[in-house]
Amino acid sequence: MDYINAFWVGGLICALVQILMEKTKLMPGRIMVLLVCSGAVLGAIGLYEPFQEYAGAGASVPLLGFGNTLWKGIREAVDTDGFLGIFKGGFTASAAGICAALVFGYLASLIFDSKMKK
C-alpha cells in the first residue's frame, strides 16, 4: 500500500503543478520556488510530517520535500547553534541531495549527447 500511496500522491502533486504551468503565466522557475517555499511553510506549521508519513516518497521526492528538508535543517541548526543556524542549517541538511544531483547530472552529460532545443 505504501507504493500505491507514494504513486498517487506524487502523481497528484505533479498533475497540480502541470495545471499551474498551463493555466497561469507563472514561469517554471517561479513555480519551483513556490513549491520549495510551500514545503518549508507546511513543515514549519507541522502539516508536512504527517503528510510525508502517509505518502512516503510521493511527498519527500518532489520539491515540496526539498523545502521541508531545508526547514528541518534550519530548525535543528537554530536549536544547536542559535542565530547562525539560520544561515547554515539548510546547507547542511540538503548537501547530500544537491551533491548527488550535481554528480549524476554530470555523469549523464558524459554518457548522453545533449543538444540545444530548436
Question: Can you tell me about this structure?
Answer:
The protein has 118 residues and is an all-alpha fold. It has one domain. The protein is 82% helix and 0% strand. It contains six helices and no strands. The protein has helices at 2-23, 28-44, 48-55, 57-60, 63-81, 85-111.
The first-to-last residue Cα distance is 43 Å
Radius of gyration, in angstroms, nearest whole number: 16 Å
Q: How much strand?
A: under 5%
The number of helices is: 6
Summed up:
The chain is mainly alpha-helical.
Secondary-structure blueprint of this entry?
Blueprint: H1 2-23, H2 28-44, H3 48-55, H4 57-60, H5 63-81, H6 85-111
How would you describe this structure in keywords?
118 residues; mainly alpha; 82% helix; globular
